[in-house]
Amino acid sequence: MKIIVHDFSGHPFQVHLSRALAKRGYSVLHVYSKSFQTPKGALRKRLDDPDRFKIMGISQKHGFPKYSFIKRWFAESDYSRQLLTIVKDYKPDVIISSNAPLDIQHRLFNLCKKMDRCRFIFWVQDIYSMGMAHALRKKFAVFGRLIALYYIALEKYLLRRSDHIVVISQDFKPIVTSWAQGRQTTVVENWAPLDEIIPHPRQNTWAESQGIADKFCFLYSGTLGMKHNPARLLQLARHYRNDRDVVLIVVSEGEGATWLKHRAKAENITNIRFYSYIDYEQFPMVLSSADVLIAILDKAAGLFSVPSKVLSYHCIGRPLLLSVPKRNLASKIVETSQSGLVAEPDDITGFCSFADRLKTDVHLQNRMRSNALRYAKHAFDIDKKCDAFVRLFQ
């Protein structure tokens, strides 16, 4: 069987799945966007990869303009053209597609349906159209609502017509099944690659090179859009602005990171340090330089998005501090595993209070470190994740 795993973002666990499927004997082509600005996984061929496993990255000459509606449309068209050429040449039996903008997903789906015996699995990482609706209504008011309605209708259409749907949270299932009108839906919660994101000592060469080895370090890593509520990071930095022993590290790029930089500069807040996305091989050492790892998500986004960075954090074995709706899967994981503390997005006082607890209570830190690693070792078994997808093929 020939499989294309298409992950537009190029995140770590999708290519982890592709490698696992190839080791099971499937021929797998993993396709992703080189130009999309987001943290990437292990997307280079390794010496121990089987010959039947291949990786292809798609580039746009002028990058991928996330925040310009018109330029983005042209970039998506160019990406789709290259993607469809790859699919036609490879002739897969199954396409698993995740994180794709809906216009790209639509074109890929249409090609799949034209090919002999090709099956399409829609791997729902976010309820994409709901996220678009949230952003468009803020930016374009009435016109944005009309565009949002179109994309909600398009996502419903794709879900109804897909051969199978995989969702990452039980919370997504009621919405997706109501939209998909009885189409088969399977829940496979996301994971992080335990064999790749390996914890390092807190006092490591990266921490020492950045002069933070002797400071208490809060760290946020990953995508930082406006839906993530970057104001929480600004408020945390304000809370510790007079404490020279505390530093906030932000490893991110894009709209939210730019906003945060400007606000910090305007307020002369000097205890935030900004870094562009780190190479994946160095990523575990950077995360290990933290005493506390942070995830944030605003209230509305909690309905359609689950921050997967929380999973990578568990592999490192550090306490987590979340400003995420408690009904969100990420919050449920942290509270159930007792690997961190969770404040609601509108609870500024609680968020900073939890930060103080994690900073001062050494016994709490140690317990949460152990709990985080325990959860990761229990929940991130790649063989079980691979089994779930193989059952779909069968």
Can you describe this structure?
Helices cover 46% and strands 17% of the residues. A seven-stranded parallel sheet has the order 3-2-1-4-5-6-7, with helices on both faces. It has a six-stranded parallel sheet with strand order 10-9-8-11-12-13, with helices on both faces. It is globular. The model has no long low-confidence stretch (mean pLDDT 93). The chain contains 14 helices and 13 strands. The relative contact order is 0.11. The chain has 394 residues and is an alpha/beta fold.
What global shape is seen?
globular
End-to-end distance, in Å? 11 Å
Q: What's the pLDDT, averaged over the residues?
A: 93
**Radius of gyration, Cα only, in angstroms?**
21 Å
The largest β sheet comes out as: 7 strands, parallel
Q: Which residue ranges are poorly predicted, with pLDDT under 50 across at least 5 consecutive positions?
A: none
Secondary structure: elements and pairs:
Blueprint: E1 2-7, H1 12-23, E2 27-33, E3 53-58, H2 69-90, E4 94-98, H3 102-114, E5 119-124, H4 128-161, E6 164-167, H5 173-180, E7 185-187, H6 205-209, E8 216-221, H7 231-239, E9 246-251, H8 255-266, E10 272-275, H9 283-288, E11 292-296, H10 309-316, E12 320-323, H11 329-337, E13 340-343, H12 348-360, H13 362-379, H14 382-393
Parallel strand pairs: 1-2, 1-4, 2-3, 4-5, 5-6, 6-7, 8-9, 8-11, 9-10, 11-12, 12-13
Give the gist of this structure:
The protein is an alpha/beta fold and 394 residues long.
